[in-house]
């Protein structure tokens, strides 16, 4: 059953929350219109939302003034990107980051933000989750947050040549275990935090 638009895609949050141990900072990567941010802001001391598309980031600033909104993409390195579409997908939420020297979007790494007490990381990056995880390795290994990633088998391969489930394998290699799936969202926690 599809969730209502007001809570679009947040079903996995309810699976993840019992495993969160630090409620300092939550990261909402690929924030879109902020359905996750809206849920996280009442549960964490600080929510950082990353949305590379200007129109969506501006809307999020208005709708969620208590959220720290970054109009940037999360990536494995700092660079410039453009937002691209493929095939028949034309919605703003279907755009994905592609490295481009003349891109109008700044891509940053999670690690470059030097965030402390990170308790939850959510990444819905239209196939770029693996890259964002690489750029957040130091932060994730240090704070051991619950991690929720979108896992669409086709996006990562078609857009970036990444093998299916590369992001899941990376998290597993760091000691995270899969707690469950809700649609295309996969929830991970680190073994010491799982009963």
Description:
- With 195 residues, the protein is an alpha/beta fold.
- The chain has a single domain (5-193), classed as Vaccinia Virus protein VP39 (Rossmann fold), CATH 3.40.50.150.
- 25% of the residues lie in helices and 27% in strands.
- The protein has 7 helices and 11 strands.
- It has helices at 11-16, 35-40, 54-63, 129-134, 137-143, 155-160, 166-173; strands at residues 25-29, 46-50, 68-70, 73-74, 79-84, 96-99, 105-108, 118-123, 146-150, 176-182, 185-190.
- The strands form 2 sheets. A 7-stranded mixed beta sheet has the order 3-2-1-8-9-11-10, with helices on both faces.
- α3 links the parallel β2 and β3 (68-70).
- The longest helix is centred in the first third of the chain and has 10 residues, at 54-63.
- It is globular and about 45 Å long.
- 44% of the residues are buried.
- Residues 1-7 have low confidence and may be disordered.
